[in-house]
């Protein structure tokens, strides 16, 4: 059975827990995601630890945001870990995104548009022209224009972003909550079914899976729901 298009966010306090979660979910999902908490605590070795002996994709969610030369250097430093995806902030601008793309030819650079924890009122406070849906589309077009091969947005914007950037860009959506799960600090959310129907390619799900008493069973349950959905018609 094909693993489901889910990236489980391994936001664990220690490496043993992250590696245990990874081994439990690996039979059911395509990807595990390493974020700032684990990477800053354990460094590059964390990638091998969560991969184990499996061939699971690793998504390195470091959200780089700096001047182009610094981002190019940081991207080169992690490219040797062969992550399938590496995130940068789209708001870093086109030269920065291009620098990351050129520094890691074997990794898809995923540009984070507007964090899924932000609401329209937060964008006003930051001084980013909203609403969030407009800002996401604007940043998505900017990032793709600079060569980003993937985009991070909320499932609520996935359909509009897909219409904006076409079929070849990988759309990654955090802010995914199975029916009945708490939103926690996520603001712009949708269910896994709705995220996939809106055109997302990879659903990021963390605490609803890792906070379950059996993360393997929780991942298998979401994967089973996705497998039951009708497949989209191939484009003519
Ligand atoms: O806009 C963004 C970008 C990244 N994230 C990351 O995704 C996971 C979500 O975890 P949950 O436990 O499912 O909320 C987390 O690692 C974030 O750093 C995001 O949420 N939103």
UniProtKB/TrEMBL annotation:
What domain of life does the native source organism fall in? Bacteria
- Give the first-level EC class, as a single word: lyase
Q: Which residues are catalytic?
A: 63 (proton donor)
What pathway is this protein said to act in by its record? Pyrimidine metabolism; UMP biosynthesis via de novo pathway; UMP from orotate: step 2/2
Specify the Orotidine 5'-phosphate decarboxylase domain's residue ranges. Answer: 5-222
Question: Which of UniProt's keywords are assigned here?
Answer: Decarboxylase, Lyase, Pyrimidine biosynthesis
Q: What's the Enzyme Commission number for this chain?
A: 4.1.1.23
InterPro entries (UniProt xref): Aldolase_TIM (IPR013785), OMPdecase (IPR014732), OMPdecase_AS (IPR018089), OMPdecase_bac (IPR047596), OMPdeCOase_dom (IPR001754), RibuloseP-bd_barrel (IPR011060)
Please give the catalytic activity noted in the UniProt record: orotidine 5'-phosphate + H(+) = UMP + CO2
Sorted alphabetically, which CDD domains does this protein's record hold? OMP_decarboxylase_like
Q: Does the keyword Lyase apply?
A: yes
UniProt-listed Pfam families: OMPdecase
List positions binding substrate: 11, 33, 61-70, 116, 177, 186, 206-207
What family does this belong to?
A: Belongs to the OMP decarboxylase family. Type 1 subfamily.
NCBIfam families in the record, alphabetically?
Answer: PRK00230.1, pyrF
Q: How does it assemble?
A: Homodimer.
Q: What does this protein do?
A: Catalyzes the decarboxylation of orotidine 5'-monophosphate (OMP) to uridine 5'-monophosphate (UMP).
Stated name of the protein? Orotidine 5'-phosphate decarboxylase
Species name for this entry? Actinomadura fulvescens
């Amino acid at each position: 059975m094909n693993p489901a298009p889910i990236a489980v966010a391994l936001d664990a306090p220690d490496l043993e827990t992250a590696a245990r979660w990874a081994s439990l979910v690996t039979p059911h999902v395509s990807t595990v995601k390493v974020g700032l908490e684990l990477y800053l605590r354990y460094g590059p070795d964390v990638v091998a630890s969560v991969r184990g002996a499996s061939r699971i994709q690793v998504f390195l969610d470091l959200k780089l945001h700096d001047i182009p030369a610094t981002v190019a250097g940081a991207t080169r430093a992690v490219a040797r870990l062969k992550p399938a995806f590496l995130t940068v902030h789209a708001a870093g601008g086109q030269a920065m995104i291009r620098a990351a793309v050129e520094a890691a030819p074997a990794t898809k650079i995923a540009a984070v548009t507007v964090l899924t924890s932000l609401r329209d009122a937060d964008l006003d406070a930051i001084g980013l022209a909203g609403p969030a849906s407009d800002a996401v589309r604007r940043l998505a077009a900017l990032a793709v224009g600079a060569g980003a091969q993937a985009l991070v947005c909320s499932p609520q914007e996935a359909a509009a972003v897909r219409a904006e950037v076409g079929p070849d860009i990988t759309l990654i959506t955090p802010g995914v909550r199975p029916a009945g799960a708490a939103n926690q600090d996520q603001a712009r959310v949708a269910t896994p079914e709705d995220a996939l129907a809106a055109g997302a390619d990879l659903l990021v799900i963390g605490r609803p899976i890792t906070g379950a008493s059996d993360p393997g069973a929780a991942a298998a349950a979401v994967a089973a729901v996705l497998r039951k959905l009708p497949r989209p018609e191939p484009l003519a």
